Amino acid sequence: MTDGARAALYLLGGGLLLAGGTELAVRVYDATPRATRSVLVNGTETPAGVGLSVPLVATVNKAVTLRAASVGLPNPTYQFWVESPTGTWQNIYGYGPNATASFTPTLAGIWHVIAYARDASTPARQSGTTGPRPKYEVWSHTLRIWVI
Predict the structure, then answer these.
(1) What is the DSSP letter of 22?
(2) Percent of the chain predicted with pLDDT > 90
(3) What are phi and psi of 16, to 5 degrees?
(4) 40-70 burial, b for 16+ CB within 10 Å, e for fewer?
(5) How far is CA 140 from CA 7, 52, 53, 73, 100, in A?
(6) How many CB atoms lie within 10 A of CB 76?
(7) How many CB atoms lie within 10 A of CB 119?
(8) CB 119 within 8 A of CB 74
(9) Residue 12: pLDDT over 80
(10) Contact 47/136 with Cβ under 8 angstroms?
(11) Which of 44, 60, 117, 123 could form a disulfide with 70 if both were Cys (CB 3.0 to 4.6 A apart)?
């Protein structure tokens, strides 16, 4: 800041914004994957985990990229979900080899995101079943993105 210049800073979920909406280069990372549970990989119990990296602050109608990383899965596949401020969850990338996925938030507010990972050798889900399958899947913490 220059002499006499003043700026208000706001703390938003651990990140900072300058008054007027100027975003500081702040990111939240939960990207360090840790082996959080044992899952079956090719019939063998294996310690595995997944981490997720997201921006802390995003802008309405601008693409947001999510990045996942896993440990313990020889051939990881990933799935990404987002929850809008209205409480609706949406699968933005079904299980596949890409460790990144993007979505474009259409509403201001707090969005929640989560990543799941499993090995490519995991049996397909039976039709009509929902929710995580702890025997085969690991999941990240649910993280928040403040959309302005």
Answers:
(1) P
(2) 52
(3) -120, 145
(4) bbeeeebebbbbbbbbbbbeeeeebebbbbb
(5) 35, 6, 10, 14, 14
(6) 21
(7) 21
(8) yes
(9) no
(10) no
(11) 117
Look up tokens 């994957």; give the residue: 33
β-pairing, 15-18 with 9-12?
Answer: antiparallel
- Per-residue tokens: 129: 């079943």
Q: Helix, strand or coil for residue 131?
A: coil
Contacts of 63 (CB under 8 A, 6+ apart): 102, 103, 104
- Residue burial 5-38, b: 16+ Cβ < 10 Å; e: rest: eeeeeeebeebebeeeeebeeeebebeebeebbe
The residue whose two tokens read 């280069």 is 25
Report field, pTM of the whole predicted structure over 0.85: no
Amino acid identity, residue 75?
N
Question: pLDDT tens for residues 15-73?
Answer: 444 445 554 444 444 456 766 778 888 888 889 999 999 999 999 999 999 999 999 99
- Banded model confidence at residue 134, pLDDT cuts 50, 70, 90: low
